[in-house]
Amino acid sequence: xxxxDLTDIADLRREYMKGGLRRNELTQEPLTLFExxxxxxxxxxxxxxxxxxxxxxxxxxxxxQRIVLLKHFDEKGLVxxxxxxxxxxxxxxxxxxxxxxxxxxxxERQVCFLGKAEKLSPLEVVKYFHSRPKDSQIAAWASQxxxxxxxxxxxxxxxxxxxxKFKNGEVPLPSFWGxxxxxxxxxxxxxxxxxxxxxxxxxxxxxxxxxxxRLAP
Length: 217
Fold this sequence. Notes:
globular; 34% strand
C-alpha cells in the first residue's frame, strides 16, 4: 500500500453518485422525511446511525461540537442525555440555541436541525436512565464529565468501586444527570450530487406549518 502524503489532501475528492433529492420527494413536514432517512441509515448498516454532532456556544461566543446519540424524537423535538455538569449543559444554561447535525456520509447525506434546548422532566430522565445497561448507569456516577483528571486509572478505579457498591441493588439516578429536548424550527436536508451540484432543501417553521425552499449548493 502506498503511504499517503498528507501534503496532497487538497486532491482528495470523489463524486457523489448515489442519487438526488427532488422536490416531489419532500414531505409536508420535515420529521417524516427525517424518519425515512434515519430508517434507511439503519437498514444500510451504518455505524451509529443515531450519532449527531451537537454544537453549542459558550458565554464568550466560542462554539464547541461533540458527538452524542439521539435517543428519541417526535414533533416536540429531538432528545439526548448527558451529565448536567458537562460543558455542553453549561453552555445550554446560558444559551439554549443549538445545532444538531447527522452526518450520514456513506449515503452522501446530511441533516441539520436548528432549535432551542430545554431540560427534560425528572420522570422522563429516570425512565430512560433505568432502561440503560447497568454498567452505563454506574459510569454516569463515576465520571464528572468535562472535569480534568490526572490519569485514566482514577476513572477506572472509581468505576470498579461503584460497581462493587451497587452489585446487589438498583443504581439510583444521579442528581447531576439528565437530558435535553431540542425543539426545532429549521431543518436542512442535504443530498450529494455529481459535479458538486448538491441538493439542499430547508424547512422553516411558519404560522401555517412549514415553508420549504431549495438552497444553492
